[in-house]
Structure formats: structure tokens, C-alpha cells
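On clarity, I found the account of how folds are encoded harder to follow than it need be. Since the whole study asks how a given chain folds, the encoding of that fold should be made plain. For the editor and my fellow referees, an illustration may be useful. An entry of this sort, consisting of the sequence and the corresponding C-alpha cells, reads as follows:

:::
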Amino acid sequence: MAQIVLFHSVYGLRPAVHQAAERLRAAGHQVHTPDCFEGRTFEDVEEAMAYKEELGSEELLRRAVSAVAPLLVPEARLVYAGYSLGAALAQNLALADEKALGLLLLHGTSDIREDATTSLPVQLHVAEPDAFEPEDWLNAWYLNMTKAGADVEIHRYRGAGHLFTDPELPDYDAEAAERTWAVALDFLAELDAEG
């Protein structure tokens, strides 16, 4: 059983995150779903982005760190996961946690410090093309992650929208979502076996 922290997207802690957590629990994992927006959810991306900007990156990261802190007991080896904005938060926390077991990124990535070092297994699921994760950015991200020592897999879904695993958004692509979860569950099972 992997212990997973699953961070929400810029839309907040919506039903799609709870559904994903239930899917992961059904596969035998323990899942935590922090609410970095303290109950706020959004239907409109512009409103969601405005709220994110109002909070600021430092405050969001502080909230994410505070949510994970109680889980960081000596024997804990967490898998960090997230949707889009939540993937960026998950990546930052995973790279700072030397005991992290793995990193599962859905629809998003984040900057990588030049001095970052990690041996983390990393799996990214991303639309192709994705306006929020352009090709040049993803190529640089991949090179920087592998340079840091991560074992990176990228799974691309041609024609899918940015948040294609959220059934309540226009981006939803049922086939791509099911492929994503099948591959992600295999990844998590491997991490669990190694952990």
C-alpha cells in the first residue's frame, strides 16, 4: 500500500479529485487530499487563476507543506501526486523530501532548481499539445529532471484537453482518462512493491 498525497488543480478540491482518491483507495492505497484553497472551488478558469494569483505561490506552497507535515513521520515514504497546479506543488514537495517514494504528475510540472538532485521515479501524463505545458517547456523540464537524477516517464495524449481526467470539465476525454489511470495504477503498484 502506497501512501499518496494528491493535490488539486486551480479549480480547487472538486469531485474529480475525490473520485481519483477513491479509485486509488480501491487499488489498496492510502490517499490524502489536502485542500490548499480552504474550501473554495471554481467553475471558471479565469476566476480560479485570479484566486491563485491573489493567494500567491509562496502561500500555496506554505499550505501544501503544512498539509503534508503531519504525514512526515520517520517511517513515511510518500508518493506525491497532483493535478496541474497541484502537480507543480507535488513536484516541489517531492524534490524536497529525500524519503519520497515517487511522483505522479497529472497535467502539470514545475520549475526545477539547477542544484536539484533526486533518484525519484516520476510519471507525467499530459495532453499533446497542451497550452499550459508547451513542447519547449516539457523538453527542458525532462532534461532538467533527468539531469537531477530522476527516472522520468512521459505519457502524452494527442487531442485531449489540458485537464482531460476531470469528467466535469470541457477538457474531459474518457478514453485518455482511462488510459491514464491504468498506467498510473501500474506505476503506483511498482512503487509500492519497491517501497
Remarks:
- The chain has a mean pLDDT of 95.
- Helices lie at 15-26, 45-55, 57-68, 85-96, 135-148, 174-194.
- The radius of gyration is 15 Å.
